[in-house]
Amino acid sequence: MKVLVPVKRVVDYNVKVRVKSDNTGVDIANVKMSMNPFDEIAVEEAVRLKEKGVATEVIAVSCGVQQCQETLRTAMAIGADRAILVQTDEELQPLAVAKLLKALVDKEQPGLVILGKQAIDDDCNQTGQMLAALADLPQATFASKVEVEAASGASAKGQAKVTREVDGGLETLEVSLPAVVTTDLRLNEPRYVTLPNIMKAKKKQLDTVKPEDLGVDVKPRLKTLKVTEPAKRGAGVKVPDVATLVQKLKTEAKVI
Ligand code: AMP
């Protein structure tokens, strides 16, 4: 069974982003970029499936600018076997990415597509769900545990049990393969990328295609009207005793 893992290049989660002065978006010039953390978890899970002998090949795919190659090399250093870059300078929105991934699903016929539940830059939480709908595949989102029973070899058949953290407990679903699974934070802890593996990843196969080659129009459909900073928090006050605190909560904050 092949596993396809979409990975997005995003602003590193440690960076404190700034809104551009004209409020058109966030300034990403000269900012550290990394793999979306949920996607790192997805790559780790796919590589573990390969190590268990369940997956036969792990293919990482990223859609975006040429520098996404670095993200793909990181995925291959974690253990992905090969990578595909769908290269475009166009701003990609989730529907466009889902269409590109659908075209790659048709081509590669994976048994499992495992992707992040959410990209930390746009916070859309849409791509996996849209892909499942476009490719007419079952989906299990926000996975905190994935157990796959795949048919042997390159076959995309089998089933997966996916545990999801829901309000008040854990829900376990069974989906037949091929399927789309999106990862939650507690699914696993991705391994550290070692230098020898970074060197090995440089020799792995990285193919580049264009959206036109896949027959997909990726022009943005949504227009961002405005991006603004969150309101600044006011300074706190120190109160001398509990009675004053309770009185202030009642009369000033009006929360009790
Ligand atoms: P989103 O729907 O934008 O929150 O993204 C959810 C997931 O879709 C991400 O965690 C990635 O796995 C995948 N994804 C989104 N955009 C891209 C992209 N440009 N290239 C590859 N994968 C992507």
Automatic annotation (TrEMBL):
Cofactor entry: AMP
Subunit and interaction comment: Heterodimer of an alpha and a beta subunit.
Domain of life: Bacteria
Name this polypeptide is given: Electron transfer flavoprotein subunit beta
Keyword Flavoprotein attached: no
Job description of the protein: The electron transfer flavoprotein serves as a specific electron acceptor for other dehydrogenases. It transfers the electrons to the main respiratory chain via ETF-ubiquinone oxidoreductase (ETF dehydrogenase).
Swiss-Prot/TrEMBL GO biological process terms: carboxylic acid catabolic process
Keyword Manganese: no
Domain Electron transfer flavoprotein alpha/beta-subunit N-terminal: 23-218
